[in-house]
Structures are given as structure tokens and as C-alpha cells.
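Posting this for the archive.
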Amino acid sequence: MIAKIYTRDFGLQSFIVTVSRSKSGKIKSPLLQPLTQLDLRIEVKEKSTLHSIKDLALGVPYQHLHNDIVKTSLALFTAELLHRTVREEERNEQLYDYISKSVQLLDLTTDGTADFHLLFMMNLTKYLGFYPLENEAGERSVFDLVNGIYIDGVPGHFNYLDEPESRLFELVSCATFENMGSLNLNGEKRKIILNVLLRYYEAHIPAMQKMQSHEILSLVLTA
């Protein structure tokens, strides 16, 4: 199989992987579940975009991520988001560490995980280059999705959030993983914020393909 793996030393790379079904085989399919953190010994081929894995082992064992329906759904959404947004084929330790630590936090956190994906999306924009500008434009300001800034009135285009959407967007932008359990968002507000975040991403990543897993995620989080 072909696996796309985000590595600490080489950024996003594609690998050809032989998955074994025998007990003695080294590489088993569970090791290639979304967001699994691995220790790899690889062979990088300079004139090829497809590399080889010489050895593979579990790097960070999860306790709940792959056996909790909410966390598994959040992991699938996060993996799809990264697949559609991260294109770097060069070393970016800060981005790698952010992803690694965030997923470990999701695995171990017991309260407020239903809003994890919103904070992950918001903070990921720091590494993708379009984090919202921190400015004061009043309580009735609207958020300009194109320029990433709060403004009074409306911009000269239609790609902006109305006042209620802007306040929800602002709420998430001010939150942290440590206090995400205090957001107390209901299913409707959570869905609104997710949709406006997706609009924000699409405004800054024109070639970004439509997400698929967010609809399933919405069902899980409102069940």
C-alpha cells in the first residue's frame, strides 16, 4: 500500500509499505491507522517521490484514541484536515510537534473533547500562515475571511462572517486546549463554528478539496 506520512525530518512523504497478515510480519495494518505516531527507519530516494520503510514500530501508544467513538471520529476528521491542507515536503519541527502534542492531548483529555477539532483547526492556521489578526474592532464587528481581520461595517466582498458567526469565531480564537472544556457549546453552535472555519480555510487554500468526514463528525457530536 501507499502511505502518506508526515515526518519530523522530511515533512510530508509518501512510502510504499508491505503490510503483513502473518504473525511473524513486522508491519501490521493497525500501525497505519490515522494519526498513529510511529518510529520509522526509512530509505529516502533522492530522485523519487516514493520512498521505502525499512523498519516500523509504534512510537506513542494511545490509551483511548482508537477505541472511543468520539475521539476516533475526531481523529479521522483531523487526519483528513491535515491530508487536505499540509503539503510541505521539508522539515518543519514546530508543525510536527504541534500535531504530535495535540493528538496526545486528545487521547488523554477526559472533558471538553467535543470541541477539540475547533481549537485544532484554529491553531493550525498559525502554521499554515493565515492565523486571524488580533485587532479590536468593537463588539459588533464582523470577521473578514479574506483578510483575516475583524472590521466595522462590511467589506467590499461577500466572504465574511455576520455578527453572530463572528462572535462564535472570536470565542474559539480566544480559547486554549487547557480551557476548551469551559466553552459549553451546543451541537448547533459547534456546527456553525465548524462551517465558518471550513470557509476560512477555503478562502486561504483555494485548491483545498471539500471535507467529507465533518458530516459524520457532526452526527457523532450531536447524538
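The chain has two domains: 1-61, 63-222. The chain has a mean pLDDT of 89.
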